[in-house]
Design goal:
- With 821 residues, this protein is of the alpha+beta class.
- The protein has 5 domains: 94 residues, Sandwich (Immunoglobulin-like), CATH 2.60.40.10; 149 residues, Sandwich (Immunoglobulin-like); 258 residues, Chondroitinase Ac, Chain A, domain 3 (Sandwich); 264 residues, Rhodopsin 7-helix transmembrane proteins (Rhopdopsin 7-helix transmembrane proteins); 34 residues.
- Helices cover 38% and strands 27% of the residues.
- The protein is built from 14 helices and 43 strands.
Length: 821
């Protein structure tokens, strides 16, 4: 007799439960089923289900344990375990009751926004409709609250398969920076609660807003700037929502997330498959067949359906890591994936396009690796061609891409892909990928190393230089690590790689690129130098600021020294902030659009402020040199430096952003989180290059004046005043600082004028990267540690610290000695 151990009472929502079946006799196999809402599902290991058949004991020779993690309403039902011996199946079943909470809560408001533009007091009414799936198994206690306060009971009305809770409530027209929102909370019989919130965009008097518009039949009401309106009205046959953000006073493009109903059902089925609910070969076949049929329809050529389809591929790829898929799914899978590449993929921005294409390729790689192969000869489709090779010496041609590989065992799987490479992210603006991508993977192979040769056709790439690359799924970009060009002819390029993944060919554009990285081979090295240099610079700048705070009162005793140290501290502070912002934006793909914009503005502002304070320092020193008997007054310096160092950078950055905004141009590039170059004197990058170039040129001129004056001026025999001695010391430091700040950034300007294919460009790029990444080190050395007054004060502080330490030590060991000090 089969014995099942399971919870005897209703279990909590989102809890993890273990069910266990035992049987005295040894059996051939064991398995689990679950019945829910009249449907029966086979259970397999997934993200929610965990199966364990290794729990036998001397008393029970057959055992199977089922763990269900984070149970929701979908997992409430009757569970059946079964042990099979030959044709006989021994079973036991029990019901698992779950204290339910709504898995999906949808809130809709009417109107979508609150209009208080005609009144500064009082309130306006908003009606909120809260919808959950119909249930008879749980009686919820439901209430709503305004801005987290109050508890107003709600009652439902039935609407087909849903329960709807409706209430009307006022929102205040008293202007506030806090969000105005309503919460609806559900409480089950176990006392567990689940709450959802809807924010109400409110238009206050004198606030910036977008006017009411109608686009493609959708009404977007009058909305305050910065708010996003959610419209849950979709065309017939579709479910989801549309959203539009008011970038006051203009509307941004509409994001359409209304998905085909059948595709939405497939998406839910794929999620269940991933969890382990009904995860069978038959269900996998149905999912891929449904995806193939839907993607073949002309009505599916919209971004919502394409995004949902790629998400289904991603979910099935994740599921294939737990559940082995057989070759029967290959035709439907390949044809569905091919159909998606025939779509236009009209997205709102390039970052979305790059994310979609990267997810598509990664799911393709995982599925091709995990789907088992037995006898299939391959699959041909419009945009994908799949071929296998089981022999020890493989010579294949896939979409005219030649593949050669020697192996001892296993099966080589190759897929050639069209119409994808131009949608993948490519930060190398001087290089373009070919139209073909080849994916290669091995099944059941134990060779210690692999070597694959690829022959890419390049009929359209005559007289160009090519690089063999692969798609790095971690960095989500092209890389040539482990790949090299064997030979290159006018009609073909032979590549050789020591690993298997997705390969393609990058070629240099014939036109000259002014702004971008030069050589794929040095990218990783330059990135490492940049990250290490910035990290070291940040540490050195912090040390510099700490030392300045310790010695300031002792060292800064004249106006001239006050001017110099004030400028140096500001230079260090703004360089520190700029380096931190730069380091935070080294992985643009991991940043949202908002953070990318914020970091671009920060880098633009902080680097400009640093250069402006360099200009203040140069002007002050040259004035002191040329007008020895007319020293610069402190008030004049403070006013001048405050305007140049603080106001000017803000004006430049603000005006460049507003110019780009009102001219409907891009202020920043989402791929690099930096300013945009369009053409000569076009693009926001010139709001950085022109001011920086002006400061560098001015510093060089002042540097020439300083050097010329020092060379021509005789050394007087008499003693110098303190100010004259200080001025000389500062001039010596400037002789080091000005070339460091100016000349190093000149390398960046030289880059803009060089051809990226020349070796000199690479040399200049390395010089620029090394010198400017470690700029904080130079500031610490030349602006602080080499100054004699700071050295003397640090020695005094260290000696005093040693004396205090010794005094405390003696006092602690011999209290009688304390009175001697």
């Amino acid at each position: 007799m089969v014995t099942m151990l399971s919870p005897n009472t209703t279990v909590c929502y989102n809890s993890s439960q273990v069910l266990k079946c035992t049987f005295e006799e040894a059996t051939d196999s064991a398995g689990w089923n679950m019945a829910h809402n009249g449907q029966s599902f086979i259970l397999n290991t997934g993200t929610v289900v965990q199966l364990d058949n290794n729990c036998t004991t001397p008393q029970y020779n057959s055992c199977t344990a089922l763990t269900v993690k984070n149970v929701t309403g979908a997992w409430a039902g009757t569970y059946e375990c079964g042990f099979i011996t030959g044709s006989v199946r021994h079973t036991a079943r029990k019901h698992l009751s779950v204290a339910l909470l709504p898995d999906v809560i949808t809130m809709v408001t009417s109107p979508l926004t609150g209009d208080c533009s005609q009144q500064q007091t009082g309130s306006v009414n908003i009606t909120i409709f809260t919808t959950i799936p119909q249930t008879t198994e749980e009686k919820y206690e439901v209430w709503w609250s305004y801005k987290g306060t109050g508890r107003n009971t709600l009652y439902n009305t039935s609407n087909n398969d849903s329960l709807v809770y409706t209430f009307t409530a006022p929102i205040s027209c008293q202007e506030t920076s806090d969000a105005q929102y309503f919460n609806v909370t559900f409480k089950n019989t176990k006392g567990q609660e689940r709450s959802t919130r809807v924010d109400i965009p409110v238009i206050y008097a004198d606030s910036i807003f977008c006017d009411e518009v109608v686009t493609v039949g959708d009404l977007w009401p009058k909305t305050p700037a910065g708010a996003t309106v959610i419209n849950r009205t979709c065309p017939e046959g579709r479910v989801g929502y549309k959203s539009c953000t008011c970038d006051g006073p203009a509307w941004q493009p509409v994001f359409d997330y209304c998905v085909n109903k059948q595709l939405n059902i497939l998406s839910n089925s794929a999620q269940s498959f991933l969890q382990g609910l009904g995860a069978t070969q038959e269900r996998a076949m149905n999912i891929f067949q449904g995806l193939m049929n839907n993607s073949a329809s002309a009505s599916s050529d919209n971004i919502a359906d394409i995004t949902a389809s790629i998400n289904i591929l991603t979910v099935m790829a994740d599921a294939s890591n737990n559940i082995a898929l057989q070759e029967e799914v290959l035709p439907n899978f390949i044809n569905a994936a091919s159909n998606l590449l025939s779509k236009t993929w009209n997205v709102v921005n390039t970052s979305t396009l790059h994310s979609m294409s990267s997810d598509y390729l990664q799911s393709l790689e995982v599925l091709m690796k995990n789907i088992k192969f037995n006898t299939s000869q391959g699959v041909n489709s419009t945009n994908l061609q799949l071929k296998f090779c089981s022999s020890s010496e493989c010579n294949l041609s896939v979409f005219d891409v030649g593949v050669n590989m020697n192996k001892t065992n296993g099966t080589l799987k190759t897929v050639a892909v069209k119409n994808l490479t131009d949608r993948l992210r490519n930060i190398y603006s001087n290089m373009t990928p070919t139209s073909l991508l080849l994916l290669a993977t091995l099944e059941d192979n134990n060779d210690p190393s692999v070597k694959i040769r690829l022959e890419f056709p390049n009929d359209q790439l005559k007289n160009t230089e090519a690089l063999c690359v692969f798609w790095n799924t971690t960095r989500k970009d092209w890389s040539d690590e482990g790949c090299s060009v064997d030979t290159s002819y006018e009609t073909q390029t032979l590549c050789q790689c020591n690993h298997l993944t997705s390969f393609s060919l990058l070629i240099f554009n014939n036109e000259k690129i002014i702004y971008g990285k030069s050589n794929l081979k040095f990218t990783v090295t330059l990135d490492i130098i940049t990250n290490v240099g910035l990290g070291v610079s940040i540490c050195c700048l912090l040390i510099f600021l700490i030392i300045e705070s310790l010695v300031w009162s002792a060292v800064v005793k004249t106006n001239l020294l006050h001017f110099r140290h004030t400028a140096m501290v500001n230079i260090a502070v703004f360089l520190l902030l700029a380096d931190v912002s730069f380091l935070a934006s080294t992985s643009p793909d991991n940043l949202s659009e908002t953070w990318c914009l914020v970091l671009t503005v920060c880098k633009h502002l902080f680097y400009l402020a640093m250069f402006c304070w360099m200009l203040c320092l140069s002007v002050m020193l040259v004035h002191q040199l040329m007008f020895v008997f007319s020293p610069l007054r402190k008030r004049v310096f403070i006013v001048f430096s405050s305007f140049v160092g603080y106001v000017c950078p803000v004006l430049i950055v603000g005006s460049s952003y507003l110019h780009a905004y009102y001219k409907k141009r891009d202020y920043y590039d989402e791929e690099t989180c930096w300013l945009v170059y369009e053409s000569l004197m076009e693009g926001s990058i010139h709001a950085f290059l022109l001011p920086v170039g002006t400061v560098i040129l001015t510093n060089l001129i002042f540097m020439g004046i300083v050097i010329a004056t020092l060379v021509k001026s005789p050394v007087p025999n008499g003693n110098k005043t303190v100010n004259e001695e200080t001025a000389k010391n500062i001039l010596k430091v400037v002789a080091i600082l000005t070339p460091v700040f100016g000349v190093t950034w000149i390398f960046g300007f030289i880059q803009l004028m060089l051809d990226q294919k020349t070796p000199m460009y690479t040399v200049v790029e390395f010089c620029f990267t090394i010198l400017n990444s470690f700029e904080g080190v130079f500031i610490l050395l030349t602006g602080c540690l080499t100054e004699q007054k700071i050295q003397d004060e640090l020695k005094i502080l260290m000696a005093k610290s040693k004396s205090d330490t010794l005094k405390n030590l003696i006092s602690a060991t011999d209290p009688n000695v304390k009175d001697q000090y």
